[in-house]
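User: I'll paste a sequence; please echo it back and then give the predicted structure.

Assistant: Echoing your sequence first, then the prediction.
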Amino acid sequence: MLVVLGLLVFGMSDAQAQKLTGAGATFPYPMYSKWFSEYAAAHPGVEINYQSIGSGGGIRQVTAGLVDFGASDGPMTDEQLAGSKVKLVHIPTVMGADVPAFNVPGVNDLKFSGDVLADIFLGKITVWNDARLVKDNPGVNLPADKIIVVHRSDGSGTSYIWTDYLSKVSKEWADGPGKGTSVSWPTGVGGKGNEGVAGLIRQLPGAVGYIELIYALQNHISYGSVKNPAGNFLKASIEGVTEAAASVKQMPADYRVSITNAPGKDAYPISSFTWLLIPVHSADPAKGKVIKDMLSWIVNSGESEAPNLSYAPLPKSVAEKVLKTVYSLQ
């Protein structure tokens, strides 16, 4: 998906105009679309093209130097960072939640334990009236319909968050498919992007898959509560994601941190930061200046808009740390 955000308008000469290109995560795309559009509108002469192609594609493009910045919900590995043509820094922008979205006719709400979700995606639980699902959902009339698992077909930070969580709640998952932006899925059908997975879930009765919260809300797709380590079944919420982030007592210097399955009675267990991948040294100083200003604007002004799209803004301590990192970019 390609979106062109911002147009050249009066007030800045063609020589001063800057066109930025970025690519990556679909998880934060609704937020980034809004931010980039507003930033461009407030800064005449700036144009921002962001391709919502998935975290894997974003990492590949930014490490090859094909775009000015990347975006991912799965932090880059040490190997990926070492192999990049440009030195990159992770800049956390907002936090969001993966939700288990489903299409079970006649059923609007479900509860999922982590081990049950893992076994569904391992292909071990194959029907909706399986005894373990029935146990977690007393009083719900679950049909004997076959479960259709829907996962991402592209390299995906949303998949990273999901498989990071499954690896923490299921040893069989951790020892099998494991975690990553791309894994070998034991069962199911694939959709491209959060948009593709959401579309398949809507189309296929009996389907269950994982999407970022805003995609479930915007597409009117039912999604379930997930059992957290404290034993509470929670629906994804801004408050639950914020509580999960509170489990990080000391943010790592490189911002690469996982907040899935976090402790806390109100912490939503499939929560995550999402990151922009920014060159430390911009090959074009003029572009680098605009990127720094854009990032500063996001932290100082954009964060307040996050709850309107069901994302959680950065905690104040993290935002202050991020600004120092942004100011150090060259």
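The chain has two domains: 2-95+273-328, 97-245. The first strand starts at residue 2 and ends at 5.
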